Structure formats: C-alpha cells, structure tokens
Amino acid sequence: MATERETPGGDSAPSGARGGTDMRLRRGARSATARPQVLTGARVVLPQGTVENGQLAVDGKYIAAHPPADAQVVDVSGHWLVPGFVDIHNHGGGGASFSGTPDDILTAIRTHRAHGTTTLVASTVTDEMDLLVRQAGLLSELAEQGDIAGIHFEGPFISPCRKGAHSEKLLRDPEPAEVRKLIDAARGKARMLTLAAELPGGIDSVRLLADHGVIAAIGHTDATYEQTVEAIDAGATVATHLFNAMPALGHRSPGPIAALLEDERVTVELINDGTHLHPAALELAFHHAGADRVAFITDAMDAAGIGDGRYMLGPLEVEVSEGVARLVEGGSIAGSTLTLDRAFKRAVTVDRLSVEDAVTALSVNPARLLGLSDRIGSLEPGKDADLVLLDADFELKGVMRHGEWVVVPQLA
C-alpha cells in the first residue's frame, strides 16, 4: 500500500531492514535553518499565555532564550506559532501503515510530519503474536533512531464485544506472560498498551505495565464502572479513544466512561474528526475532565493524507468513502483519516475551544504522558525547536522539527 511521496523538507524513504541498515529519514547536507532564525510578529502560544506580536528564536535544534547575533529575521506577522503536535495513537498515513515494511513506516511518518505532528507514537493493530513481536522489533529501531517516540500496542488484548476494526479470531486474553512478550520485543520502546482490563489477567497486566513504565490504556472494553475503577487503581492512566469501542454512558450502569472521566489520574483520548464524536460528547469530556486531561489523537490509518479507496488495516479490508473509514465486512468504523492540523482547526473553529486549550490537548498533555515535557510540548528556551505555523484561519503554513523546516513557509 505504500506510496513514494516527497515532502516539503525533501525527505525520501530509504529502504531498510534489520541488521544494520540505517532506516532514518534522510536529511539534506545542510539544514534549511542552519543559520539561526528569529520568527517575529506572530501570536506565539507560550505556557504562560499567548503573546501578541511575539518572537521566537531558533538556534540549531533548539529554541533559544535570546536571538543570536547573526540570526535571520523571518516576519510571520498575521500567523500563529504553536508547539509541534504530539500524536500518541496513530496507525499510519500516506497510503502506508506502521504494521508494514520500513518504507511503509517512513512514508507514514513523513505524511504526518507534513501535517504538524513532530512527535509520533506508532500504533500496531491486532495480528498474530509472532508478527506483532517482529513488528515491535522493527519499530523499536525507528524509536532508537529518534524517528518515532515509541510504540503503542492496540490489541490483541481487547474484548470481542468491542473489537471495532480488529480481527476477532486473533484476539486473546491479556495474560501477563503474553503482554510481557510485547514489552520485551519493544526493547524499552513500548510507550502504551491498550487492553480490556475485565478480561482474565487484565488487572495483573495493568500492574505489570505500570511496573515497567508502560502506559496501561483502557479501551475496546466491555468493563463495568466497578471493573474500570479497579483497573485505574491498579495503574491504568489513559482512556483509549473515549466513548468509542466501549459501553455507552448509562444512568444505572455508568460503565467505563464515567469512571474514566471522573478520575483525575486518567487522560482521555478523543478523536476530533466530526465522525467519531458528536460535538456534545467532546464538550462533555472537556467539561468533566478539563483541558489538562484531554489528548487529541488521530487513530489514523493508511488513508490519512491520501483519500478515498480500499486499504488494509492489519488483516482486515477497509473502504474509505468521503473521508470515513469502515470495514468492508460489517461496516465498523476503522480508525480515521484525520491529521492533527485538521483536529486543531476543528477544535477552535467548530468546537469553539480556545487556542490555548487546543494546544494543551494536542501538544502539552501528550508530551507529559510520554514523559517528554522537558524536551517537547511547549515553546520554551532549551526545548526542541518543534513548532507549527498557522495562518489566521488556522490553516497549516509551516512545520519545523528539531530546527529544520519540514514544511517551509511560503510567505508573501
């Protein structure tokens, strides 16, 4: 399914394989921002608030406290400068999947970088255990090289009652020994694992994940309110795409949604594409959890950045029509075609969130979850120069990662 696509930064996807081949995204001999830069005139969203007519200095890979003497001044008046987006749940894009070959993986990375996602966790989908173990090894190499921030395993430890776009015949109970196989295969690069904690072994596996520093996420679950509370007390800290693939909120049986929303230890993922959630559901989540406990995700599959057509999601065939992905057999929603620049624009123009709350949900909170707040997630001196330039209508106009333009602004 992979397609070879050039991005504005000029990256191309080299082939690669295990055993010493360098799979990293190639960069030019000289960065487009090798000379220090000062971006001036924008509305700059900082941790303490938005600065009108602000400036941001970039020196090498990092944000600088003061403009270097030889800095190039770039006037970005009339634009917004926000931190680079951080996606903790993403299966692919650009016609390629994170369950695919090295070329596929790099294609998907490039696609989402061009839409502002400067930090990305690669998500797998339910498959045979030996294939997941093999893919974990491949993805761990990309994580070691800095192209992805780690691995998220979505399945196979999920409920057949809430399987969504996962193959039911490949599901299994989250027995700790099985979960440990994936943790070990990821070689320290497992960031998150989604499971249905009500299944046999579920609570013990939540404890195992917490002990190994891996986020235990509750999702694709048929758990009761009480079972979900038990899982949170055992160490679960994320709700995988809240509302989707779990029982609806009930007044007598509140189920997992109420437990996940009410507990301050839990961050809730939301897919803000207008398909997965009614705006009222998103408003409900923000009202009860607050902006500091929401992480916008894409849950993107291969079609993100490409368009309608037939695709594969793991072993299952997906039809994408008018931007909505559904299984060919059964019709279940099968991930999204969302990119985070679209999620940002929708948040502020449709959902009427403040720009600051959108930044919190797209950058600050996911960076904190990944334990990377010292490096990414906000525009502060000493942090990575990861940023997104948006125009007054919140359309993406530029993307910088590690001080290099991935999408070079075309300014009049």
TrEMBL record:
InterPro entries: Amidohydro-rel, GlcNAc_6-P_deAcase, Metal-dep_hydrolase_composite, Metal_Hydrolase. Residues 1-36 are annotated as: Disordered. Residues 81-406 form the Amidohydrolase-related domain. Gene3D superfamilies: Metal-dependent hydrolases (3.20.20.140), Urease, subunit C, domain 1 (2.30.40.10). It comes from the Bacteria. Keywords: Carbohydrate metabolism, Hydrolase, Metal-binding. Pfam families: Amidohydro_1 (PF01979). NCBIfam families: nagA. Belongs to the metallo-dependent hydrolases superfamily. NagA family. This is N-acetylglucosamine-6-phosphate deacetylase. It comes from Streptomyces rameus. The lineage of its organism: Bacteria, Bacillati, Actinomycetota, Actinomycetes, Kitasatosporales.
